[in-house]
Specification:
Elements (H helix, E strand, L loop, with lengths): L7 E4 L3 H10 L3 E7 L3 E7 L7 E6 L15 E5 L2 H10 L20 E5 L5 E6 L16
Length: 141
Amino acid sequence: MPSAQIHTCIRVVDVDASIRFYGLLGYELRGRLNFDSAYNVYLGLPGGGDTLELTVNVGRTEPYEIGTGYNHTALTVDDLDGLLVRLAAEGIEPEKPPYAPGGREEVGRICFVVDPDGYRVELVDGDFPTPQDPPHPSLSA
C-alpha cells in the first residue's frame, strides 16, 4: 500500500521559463536527474518535499498536447491578492479574477493561472478544507 505521494511530473519545453514561473509561486529548485535523451528538474515548496518534477525531452521544440483529462494542480497561498500583483508584474494574469467556487464564500477564493506550457495551476487563498457535500444529484437513484 502506498505511504505518500511524492511528486507530479509535467513535460515542459522551456525549462528556464518553467523554473521562473514556478519560482514566482514559491517553488525552489532542488535537483536534477539526467538520462540519455531527457532530464528531470525537481522543485519543492519551502519546508516540503520535492513535489514537482519537470521533464525535458532534449530536442523537443513543439508544445505538448495536454489533453482533456488533465485539469489542474492546486496550491494554497497565504496572500492571493499579493501573489497576483507579483505575477502581474511578470506578465502573468489569472484566467479570471478570484472568485468563490460555486458562489460558496465559506470555501474561500480561488483563481487559475497558466504556466508557460499551458498547465493550469489553481491558487487557493488560505486553507482549503475538503468539502463534505452530499453525493451529486446525478448519482441519486
